[in-house]
């Protein structure tokens, strides 16, 4: 018993050391997922981002058909990387709307000219307030919204070619 | 994010800024640029220009209340107290009060605007927790997962008191 009492502090120190060291060598790179998955899309109404394309309201996600909601920006480099995948999804008949974060009409216009325009509507979120309401923590992010306006899936980061099939499936399942 | 909105800089290899959307471990290979066309210098130079970090900043200025205090000192104090308990989602070790990330600025604007409108700090915190989970606050609510945080100090104090009591007793004996 005495022996145990003698070594216990060292053992506790070693344990603590191991915990701290493991945190040091394997830093937590945490992706913050939205807690809105499974919940209704928050109400919002965003003005049009570019001339000739309507703005975006939450009501347009309650019309019986699943849609993608893409959160993007002209100043976001991974958004360029995912553009071909969005164009493919559009070609496969998946309707896509977007929220442009803290952007300007000329910058978005240029982005769409360079990278293609898969969007039916683009809302302008000038102060990221709708992005925060969605529980989105960066760009790009994509949400699958079912026909009743419920968020069913969140894709964090750029959509890779290998993610496209999953997204099409999620859209089908949301029907 | 905007920090996050931040963007992994592809040429920098495994960038691990808070903003990096691409986990260096899981997706390291994707974070690297596709093989460059052999056009040589100009293409690379043009690419490097596009990839300057300045390019990954929002093109609009931050909202008014991101960096401006509320006129009423009492309201500003309660906004400030709340901001210090909210985690910046981009630089995840910092509070939104401390962080320079663009998303933290947007969150400060949200907090100040709602306090200005008379909303209670607790309800703003709950609103954010409903969106981002408990992770967004440094003052997590008591739950099945977090009860040790509250119980452990009491247990440690208790066991410390017990050890102290027994060692004092030995001495007086």
Automatic annotation (TrEMBL), chain A:
<feature type="domain" description="Thioredoxin">
    <location>
        <begin position="35"/>
        <end position="175"/>
    </location>
</feature>
<keyword id="KW-0676">Redox-active center</keyword>
<dbReference type="GO" id="GO:0017004">
    <property type="term" value="P:cytochrome complex assembly"/>
</dbReference>
<dbReference type="InterPro" id="IPR004799">
    <property type="entry name" value="Periplasmic_diS_OxRdtase_DsbE"/>
</dbReference>
<dbReference type="InterPro" id="IPR036249">
    <property type="entry name" value="Thioredoxin-like_sf"/>
</dbReference>
<dbReference type="Pfam" id="PF08534">
    <property type="entry name" value="Redoxin"/>
</dbReference>
<keyword id="KW-0201">Cytochrome c-type biogenesis</keyword>
<dbReference type="InterPro" id="IPR013766">
    <property type="entry name" value="Thioredoxin_domain"/>
</dbReference>
<dbReference type="GO" id="GO:0030288">
    <property type="term" value="C:outer membrane-bounded periplasmic space"/>
</dbReference>
<dbReference type="GO" id="GO:0015036">
    <property type="term" value="F:disulfide oxidoreductase activity"/>
</dbReference>
<dbReference type="InterPro" id="IPR013740">
    <property type="entry name" value="Redoxin"/>
</dbReference>
<protein>
    <submittedName>
        <fullName>Cytochrome c biogenesis protein CcmG/thiol:disulfide interchange protein DsbE</fullName>
    </submittedName>
</protein>
<keyword id="KW-1015">Disulfide bond</keyword>
<dbReference type="InterPro" id="IPR050553">
    <property type="entry name" value="Thioredoxin_ResA/DsbE_sf"/>
</dbReference>
<comment type="similarity">
    <text>Belongs to the thioredoxin family. DsbE subfamily.</text>
</comment>
TrEMBL record, chain B:
<feature type="region of interest" description="Disordered">
    <location>
        <begin position="1"/>
        <end position="34"/>
    </location>
</feature>
<keyword id="KW-1133">Transmembrane helix</keyword>
<protein>
    <recommendedName>
        <fullName>Cytochrome c-type biogenesis protein</fullName>
    </recommendedName>
</protein>
<keyword id="KW-0479">Metal-binding</keyword>
<dbReference type="Pfam" id="PF03918">
    <property type="entry name" value="CcmH"/>
</dbReference>
<keyword id="KW-0732">Signal</keyword>
<feature type="transmembrane region" description="Helical">
    <location>
        <begin position="147"/>
        <end position="164"/>
    </location>
</feature>
<keyword id="KW-0408">Iron</keyword>
<keyword id="KW-0812">Transmembrane</keyword>
<comment type="similarity">
    <text>Belongs to the CcmH/CycL/Ccl2/NrfF family.</text>
</comment>
<dbReference type="GO" id="GO:0017004">
    <property type="term" value="P:cytochrome complex assembly"/>
</dbReference>
<keyword id="KW-0472">Membrane</keyword>
<keyword id="KW-0201">Cytochrome c-type biogenesis</keyword>
<feature type="domain" description="CcmH/CycL/Ccl2/NrfF N-terminal">
    <location>
        <begin position="62"/>
        <end position="172"/>
    </location>
</feature>
<comment type="function">
    <text>Possible subunit of a heme lyase.</text>
</comment>
<dbReference type="InterPro" id="IPR038297">
    <property type="entry name" value="CcmH/CycL/NrfF/Ccl2_sf"/>
</dbReference>
<dbReference type="GO" id="GO:0046872">
    <property type="term" value="F:metal ion binding"/>
</dbReference>
<keyword id="KW-0349">Heme</keyword>
<dbReference type="InterPro" id="IPR051263">
    <property type="entry name" value="C-type_cytochrome_biogenesis"/>
</dbReference>
<dbReference type="InterPro" id="IPR005616">
    <property type="entry name" value="CcmH/CycL/Ccl2/NrfF_N"/>
</dbReference>
<dbReference type="GO" id="GO:0005886">
    <property type="term" value="C:plasma membrane"/>
</dbReference>
């Amino acid at each position: 018993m005495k022996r145990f009492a003698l070594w216990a502090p060292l053992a506790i120190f070693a344990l603590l050391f191991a915990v701290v060291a493991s945190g040091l060598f394997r830093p937590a790179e945490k992706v913050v997922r939205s807690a809105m998955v499974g919940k209704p899309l928050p109400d919002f109404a965003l003005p049009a981002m570019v001339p000739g394309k309507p703005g975006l309201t939450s009501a347009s996600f309650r019309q019986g058909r699943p849609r993608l909601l893409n959160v993007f920006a002209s100043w976001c480099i991974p958004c360029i990387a995912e553009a071909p995948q969005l164009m493919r999804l559009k070609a496969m008949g998946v309707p896509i709307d977007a929220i442009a974060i803290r952007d300007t009409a000329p910058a978005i216009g240029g982005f769409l000219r360079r990278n293609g325009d898969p969007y039916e509507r683009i809302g302008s979120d000038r102060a990221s307030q709708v992005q925060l309401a969605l529980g989105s923590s960066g760009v790009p992010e994509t949400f699958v919204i079912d026909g009743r306006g419920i968020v069913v899936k969140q894709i964090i980061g750029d959509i890779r070619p290998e993610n496209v099939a999953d997204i099409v499936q999620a859209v089908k399942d949301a029907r | 994010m905007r920090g996050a909105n931040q963007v992994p800089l592809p040429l920098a290899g495994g960038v691990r800024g808070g903003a990096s959307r691409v986990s260096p471990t899981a997706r390291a290979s994707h974070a690297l640029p596709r093989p460059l066309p052999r056009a040589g210098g100009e293409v690379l130079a043009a690419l490097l220009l596009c990839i300057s970090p300045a390019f990954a900043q929002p093109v609009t200025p931050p909202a008014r209340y991101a960096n401006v205090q509320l006129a009423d000192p009492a309201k500003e104090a309660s906004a400030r107290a709340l901001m210090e308990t909210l985690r910046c989602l981009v630089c995840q070790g910092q509070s939104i009060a401390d962080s320079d990330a663009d998303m933290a600025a947007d969150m400060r604007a949200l907090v100040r605007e709602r306090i200005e409108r008379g909303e209670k700090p607790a309800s703003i915190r709950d609103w954010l927790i409903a969106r981002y989970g408990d992770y967004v606050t440094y003052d997590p609510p008591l739950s099945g997962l977090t009860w040790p945080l509250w119980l452990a100090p009491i247990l440690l104090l208790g066991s410390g008191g017990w050890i102290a009591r027994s060692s004092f007793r030995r001495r007086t004996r």
